[in-house]
């Protein structure tokens, strides 16, 4: 049987056709599209199906993971101007409504965790794994997502969260300055205003505007950012590859906030089966994630610091885990 899986983020849409035969899965066709180039997700799916040259009638189920909350089988994307319903998806694929599902993107990652190979994990903190405890996920990309995974009777249960929209809690004078800088422009400063790709850009703007840093902005980076494109990627590149002081400072603040946010998630859920750092940013900053700053801020919870050292922490380097989870969920729809 063949199923369609998708992973729709704020920047890219990834689609994949997977065939399952004798309990073994094989990817038949996969492609990534820039979301803003299309007027709807249905248009992306139709283009993908045309390019795949696979008969649509062979597709038996579909699961699309989306960046945002799914309500009554519908999604309005947080970072995109269009939405989708399960009814529309069923019509595009000529499937019964029971064979299509929209799920939160962090839910799809939860369903895909079992597919992660050891080589695709970087351990930031070793600790005994309690198989009866929950797993927690935190992941910064275009936005920041959070979720919890539990198991019961060998079945996986995933609980997505919109915890990225919690209030940002600054922990030192520098972060208080960042909060005040953003508060002048925003009604409310949430975690997602800081701890994601666009958030890194916000941090960089704060650093550049702050005379206390006493460093000139790179004219080359300023020129490249004005050209358009992924500004967070440019800041990361200038920090990691060129050692640009202002970019390095922005990344430092980002890493420390990210560690504190992950620590807060761990405090709230006690994920002694593992806390997984997912999303597209961590793999690009893996050396910075490993140098101690992230875990120092993860641990820094006052009287609970000892407890924080009992939680296994991993970075997931496999950026395909979300679409693998969506594929696994689609295959489960065929079994119903």
Automatic annotation (TrEMBL):
It is an enzyme of class 2 (transferase). SUPFAM superfamilies: Actin-like ATPase domain. Its main location: cytoplasm. The keyword Transferase applies. InterPro entries: ATPase_NBD, Glucokinase. Its EC number is 2.7.1.2. ATP binds at residues 6-11. It catalyses: D-glucose + ATP = D-glucose 6-phosphate + ADP + H(+). GO terms for cellular component: cytoplasm. Keywords: ATP-binding, Cytoplasm, Glycolysis, Kinase, Nucleotide-binding, Transferase. One of its GO terms (molecular function) is glucokinase activity. GO terms for biological process: glycolytic process. It is found in: Cytoplasm. HAMAP family: Glucokinase. Belongs to the bacterial glucokinase family. This is Glucokinase. It comes from Cysteiniphilum litorale.
